[in-house]
Amino acid sequence: MDATKEVASYKVTKGNTLVIDAQENVNYQLINDATGLGPQNIIAKRDGNDLQITLENGDLQPDIIIKNYYGENTEDTTNLIVGEHENGNIYAYVPESGETADAVSMLAAGDIEPQALGGHEVSALWVFSPWWLVGLGALALAGVAIGASGGSGKKSSGGNVVATPETSAEDLVKAAEAAEKAAEDALAQAMQDGVITPEERAKIEALNGKVNEAKDAAQEAINNLPNGAEKDKLQDRLDDVEPAELPTDLSPVTNPSNNGNQVDTLKPVVTPSDKDGSVEITPAEDDVKVEIGYTDEEDKPQTVVVEKDPETGEWKPAEGTELPEGVTVDPETGAVTIDQDAVKDNSPVTAEGTDKDGNTAETEATADEDDTLTPEVTPSDKDGSVKITPAEDDVKVEIGYTDEEDKPQTVVVEKDPETGEWKPAEGTELPEGVTVDPETGAVTINQDSVKDDSPVTAEGTDKDGNTAETEATAGEDDTLTPVVTPSDKDGSVVITPAEDDVKVEIGYTDEEDKPQTVVVEKDLETGEWKPAEGTELPEGVTVDPETGAVTIDQDAVKDNSPVTAE
Question: Of the CATH numbers 3.40.50, 3.30.870, 2.60.40, 3.90.1690, which one belongs to the domain with range 265-366?
Fold first, then answer.
């Protein structure tokens, strides 16, 4: 509206943002179509030179954007945001804080402030006067917005509209909700770049202070209401109002070599496992070096440094650094894993990341306690076999898997409490291709005994009956690598071709300490296995023509010597 008439009118629909251009010498009146009055509370945000207005509709996005509302100088901004009160008068929206700097026309870039319909009465005609800012302190002291119902608002001698006790409680709750939204909006904006600067943190903390002040004022008003449904409803609404929750680990990094300037390098991520005592350290996006500090299980401090090769992008231990036992680094991602047996329980793990410019960022987390109950299911990375290893406190392990004939199988092994020997549980017979190590309890399922890409489960039980279960997926059978099987009865060795093999070359040392080579081939027409052309089998070596299995008698191979097969 200008001095004589309404210039234009616009309709705001929920979920859509109305964008209009600012005009000189006009005020902007907000009207609720349902009541014909102005909304009691709004959120005002300055984005560059634009004014964003969010109404009381629960949306986080702005409902109105007035482009170029602000001039180059704040004092040049003279247009008001106004609304009609139920008493028929027009009032400007004023900051709930009572601070002049928080007024709509005075906001600094990036500021977000809740506003309430109040202040001095203004004419519907456009005549700007700074006197409308006077009385903000009175509004803040009263801690209220204008009453919204019943016509009970009263005009004070100073021109302010003051809520009566009958209406102030709901208005104060609305003010608290608006203050909460302002704090949440400021937090969301600050977190867009993943870093909260000290200035942003201070602003959010100040907004949180306003949330608490508004809650206290609303609570006092609710306490003075008579018991009943209306009081309970307002109390429930106020209970939902909370200050914005500031994260503790999103502060920018200070680089001592950069004169304390704030940089945007993010910290490495230290992630203690939620399943055992292991820890994973992942470099940040810009890191080219990560230095990790931790304490091992022998209470000795350890330092690991990994670096990213600038040419290949591969991560590896820094020159002169040897990875301690139980520590690995992923060459592609740079993620460093410290096994649970390599790091002390409940001890700090630190990680300092460095980018190519020498900026650094450090973070810390605490290693969890070792899991001494969950068995470890380890699919082979060479073939389709699977190994299941009991955890430290296990006395029984029950294993479930599917065999190559698609039949479910269950294997139970137990630890003898007297001898400590592991063996199949009473009444359990190990299926073909399944073995148990009597010393460690490790159960191995050969690749021909478990279905490819099928789940293998293992449940460990300790002496007190506590259980823990885990699962992994079996790999696919290796149909190329021959199987070398030393006899468990004597010194002989059997070499069995893999499914896809058509030739196997075997190397071993005989009893006279001489190297020997045997080559057998599969006839592609008949399928028969036999020594390759020009090869004569040494004494004590035979080949099965049907399977291609080569047997080296114990008297033909040197004890405790390697046997290779390709």
Answer: 2.60.40
Question: From CA 451, how far away is CA 473, in angstroms rounded?
Answer: 10
Quick check: 265 pLDDT over 70? no
Distance CA 66, CA 53 (A): 8
Please provide the CATH number assigned to the domain covering 376-473: 2.60.40
Q: List all residues 6 or more positions away from 111 whose beta carbon is below 8 Å from its beta carbon.
A: 45, 46, 102, 203
Q: What is the pTM of this model?
A: 0.35
User: Residues 108-131: pLDDT tens digits?
Assistant: 888 888 888 876 566 444 444 433
Tokens of 269: 């991520």
Which of 94, 114, 97, 116 has the alpha carbon at shortest distance from 105?
94
In three-state form (DSSP H/G/I as H, E/B as E, the rest C), the secondary structure along 78-133 is CCCEEEECCCCCEEEEEECCCCHHHCHHHCCCCCEEEEEEEEEEECCCCCCCHHHH
Helix/strand/coil (H/E/C) assignment for every residue in 346-371: CCEEEEEEEECCCCEEEEEEECCCCC
Assess contact for 521 and 505: CB atoms under 8 A: no
**Spatial contact of 198 and 253, defined as CB atoms under 8 Å apart:** no
- The domains of the chain are located at 18-239, 265-366, 376-473, 483-565
First to last CA, the chain: 91
Tell me the pLDDT tens digit for each residue of 186-241: 888 887 766 777 778 888 888 898 889 889 888 988 888 888 888 888 899 999 99
